[in-house]
């Protein structure tokens, strides 16, 4: 039997860091949602007790470093599954982009293998397993829109923001999340984005208040390291996006756009100097 799972990319509408914790992680407050740019996983049971990963993308690890491999190994070990699985990853989400591509693949593998092996693991437990793989994985298990706290693994589902277009632009640099958090001086953050304002904007379906409330404290680190990300933000604003922000630790910048008529100008303007530009929708 073959099964398929979609692994959508996430964006952070808001990312605040409250403090650095003793375990080295940072206490965060994030509002995350999904967009319809997605990897696709094909999973097939193997009679041999092995995990095989393949992908059309030549630039990701296919061994135990792959997060989908780690998800399969975790679920096999924890539930004593003696069967194997072949997982093909059709990668569409850019890698090391701030869009949680690897985390979403891991989450899709957890959901898919739960079905393939009929394990009936409740979603809450899948999230707990996901948290062992990475801070973004629990959100990628549930999807939707959520307020994430703790190191990102504590989730409160909220309603989806109103539908809109999302322009994603990734400059040709790879950013390490660990490096960005490592360079952040949490006690020196002077301006914190307000989660309560964003939650209220989403609750009221107020697109313009959502655009006004966008904020990400990791921008300070990434924009200083890579001025081209700042240039990209400024270009997107100049070209007419309603709200613009860097996603996660970057370097992808997203623009929220309400009117379809604006898209061609923004897309063509960005494509002039950035090869990777995607026009997608919020997943609502
Ligand atoms: C930047 C975001 O993607 C925003 O959604 C997340 O906060 C990071 O999520 P992630 O990539 O799943 O992160 P993990 O794989 O758990 O951790 C990668 C590294 O980022 C740092 N890290 C991550 C999450 C967090 N709350 N505090 C941290 O300091 C840690 O140094 C960790 O070693
Ligand atoms: N299935 C996978 N897809 C993409 N990258 C993977 C995968 N498994 C492991 N990786 C590795 O994980 C690293 C980060 O890639 P990923 O695309 O998940 O980053 P990201 O979008 O910045 O994630 P986040 O937003 O959660 O910080 C890369 O170095 C990549 O080699």
Q: How would you describe this structure to a colleague?
A:
- The structure is a single chain.
- The chain is α+β, with helices and mostly antiparallel strands and 284 residues long.
- It has two domains: 2-158, Ribosomal Protein S5, domain 2 (2-Layer Sandwich), CATH 3.30.230; 165-281, Alpha-Beta Plaits, CATH 3.30.70.
- The protein is 33% helix and 30% strand.
- The chain is built from ten helices and eleven strands.
- The strands form two sheets. Strands 1, 2, 3, 4, 5, 6 and 8 form a seven-stranded mixed β-sheet that branches. Strands 9-10-7-11 form a four-stranded antiparallel β-sheet.
- A hairpin with a 5-residue loop joins strand 1 (2-20) and strand 2 (26-46).
- Helix 8 packs across helix 9 (227-238).
- The model has no long low-confidence stretch (mean pLDDT 97).
- The protein binds 4-diphosphocytidyl-2-C-methyl-D-erythritol (CDM) and adenosine-5'-triphosphate.
- Keywords: ATP-binding, Isoprene biosynthesis, Kinase, Nucleotide-binding, Transferase.
- It comes from Paenibacillus protaetiae.
CATH class group of the largest domain: Alpha Beta
Q: Determine the number of helices (DSSP H or I, runs of at least 4 residues).
A: 10
Q: Which class of secondary structure composition applies to the elements?
A: alpha+beta
As a percent range, the share of strand residues is 25-35%
And the CATH topology of the largest domain? Ribosomal Protein S5, domain 2
Low-confidence runs of at least 5 consecutive residues: none
Number of strands: 11
| Portion in helices | 25-40%
Domains counted in the coordinates: how many?
2
Order of helices and strands: EEEHEHHHEEEHHHEHHEEHE
**Chain-averaged pLDDT:** 97
Radius of gyration using CA atoms only: 19 Å
Tell me which ligands are bound. Answer: 4-diphosphocytidyl-2-C-methyl-D-erythritol, adenosine-5'-triphosphate
Shape annotation: globular
> What gap, in angstroms, lies between the N and C termini?
30 Å
Main sheet attributes: strand count, strand direction, barrel closure: 7 strands, mixed
């Amino acid at each position: 039997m073959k099964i398929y799972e979609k692994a959508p990319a996430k964006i952070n509408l808001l990312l605040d860091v409250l403090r650095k914790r003793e375990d080295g992680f940072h206490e965060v407050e994030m509002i995350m949602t999904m967009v319809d740019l997605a990897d696709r996983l094909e999973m097939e049971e193997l009679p041999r007790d092995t995990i095989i990963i393949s992908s059309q993308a030549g630039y990701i690890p296919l061994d135990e470093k792959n997060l989908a491999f780690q998800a399969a190994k975790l679920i096999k070990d924890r539930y004593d599954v003696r069967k194997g699985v072949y997982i093909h990853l059709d990668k569409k989400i850019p890698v090391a982009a701030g869009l949680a591509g690897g985390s979403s693949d891991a989450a899709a593998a957890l959901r898919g293998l739960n079905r393939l092996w009929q394990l009936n693991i409740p979603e809450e437990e899948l999230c707990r397993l996901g948290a062992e793989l990475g801070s973004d994985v629990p959100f990628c298990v549930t999807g939707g829109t959520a307020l994430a706290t703790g190191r990102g693994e504590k989730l409160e589902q909220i309603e989806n923001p109103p539908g809109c277009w999302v322009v994603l632009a990734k400059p040709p640099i790879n950013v390490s999340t660990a490096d960005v958090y490592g360079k952040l001086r949490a006690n020196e953050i002077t301006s914190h984005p307000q989660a309560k304002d964003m939650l209220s904007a989403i609750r009221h379906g107020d697109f313009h208040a959502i655009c006004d409330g966008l904020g990400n404290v990791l921008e300070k680190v990434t924009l200083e390291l890579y001025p081209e990300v700042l240039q990209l933000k400024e270009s997107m604003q100049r070209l007419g996006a309603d709200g613009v922000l860097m996603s996660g630790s970057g370097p992808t910048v997203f623009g929220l756009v309400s009117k379809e008529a604006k898209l061609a100008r923004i897309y063509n303007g960005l494509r002039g100097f950035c090869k990777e530009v995607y026009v997608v929708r919020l997943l609502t």
